[in-house]
Amino acid sequence: MSKLARQIGLPKLPAAFSLIRRFRALSFPYRSPSTPRGVRPLRPKARTGADYDTSWSRRTPARMARAAIIEGPMRLAVSGLAAPDRRGMDRLAATKGPVIFAANHHSHLDTPLLLTSIPEPWRHKVIVGAAADYFFGTRVTSMLSSLVIGAIPIERTKVGRRSADLAAELISDGWSLVIFPEGGRSPDGWGQPFRGGAAFLASKTGVPVVPIHVEGTGRILRKGRSLPRPSTTSVTFGRPITAEDGENATRFAARIEREVAALADEASSDWYTARLRAHASESPELTGPNSGSWRRAWALGDRSRGAKSRTRRWPNL
């Protein structure tokens, strides 16, 4: 070994080890500064989760790439899988500026369906509030979530000031927000109580909330299923609502939930009947009966049998 080192001009091994020790002994600026005694070292900066920096995804190159994805492969996939029936977009005609789109949540397909259904001028200047622990768990998923759907990390296990401040700042800059107030996908086909995130941001920024009801995505790709099955869906937009004077986030969140429930009733019956029930506070609740799992499943009906008439074959492309 030492003979080979002499042939190629390297110093002897002891001399090489000495050079390494000397290099390691060099101080700042050749190496990172040490932390003084008695001072707690700074935590390394997190690069995933709620601390992921998504600012690059709102620059022009990323926005152009995302627009091409939404109007190309995403729209094609949604049309082939979901054949959406979009209703109520005329209710947004008089609305200007950024808004918060608040929808029920049954499937990972909900986000692509909404991104291809939201009309202009909001469609290409919208961000999606996504669970920080799920969509921003790794560097790869963080990058893809930010680029493809314009996601920003939202902490759903606790109230995170960083997430709320980022969302409020972007709304103030003219960006609209898609958020699922339930905080996660439905585990059994029924809705979950709405949390106060959308209501809090609307009250803080002064922008209206557009309630949206999405129906049918659970038949295509419900929670726990890995392969989609084509079916039909509907997206119903409601009239924008704002927080009333003295209305806190909890009461406003409950009102948003009632509006989405009325839209669900409208999608399953007709506008007039649904409005009569909503006026009488008799709209069927999104969360279903407060009883055991078997009773909830029975009330929901047999999904496979009930969706048979709406099941579609894969499109012939």
Characterization of the model:
The chain has 317 residues and is an alpha/beta fold. It has a domain of 181 residues. Helix content is 41%, strand content 11%. It is built from 13 helices and 7 strands. The chain has a 7-stranded mixed sheet with strand order 1-7-6-2-5-3-4. Helix 8 packs across helix 10. The longest helix is centred in the first third of the chain and has 23 residues. The radius of gyration is 26 Å and the shape is globular. The termini are far apart.
Low-confidence stretches: 302-309
DSSP summary, beta strand count: 7
Radius of gyration, taken over Cα atoms and rounded to an integer in Å: 26 Å
For the termini, the CA-CA separation is 65 Å
Please outline the major beta sheet.
Answer: 7 strands, mixed
Briefly note the structural class of the backbone.
Answer: alpha/beta
- Strand proportion, as a percent range, falls in 5-15%
Q: Can you count the helices?
A: 13
Overall helicity? 40-55%
Mean of pLDDT? 83
Major sheet: arrangement of strands: 1-7-6-2-5-3-4
Helix and strand sequence:
HHHEEHEHHEHEHEHEHHHH
So what's the overall shape?
Answer: globular
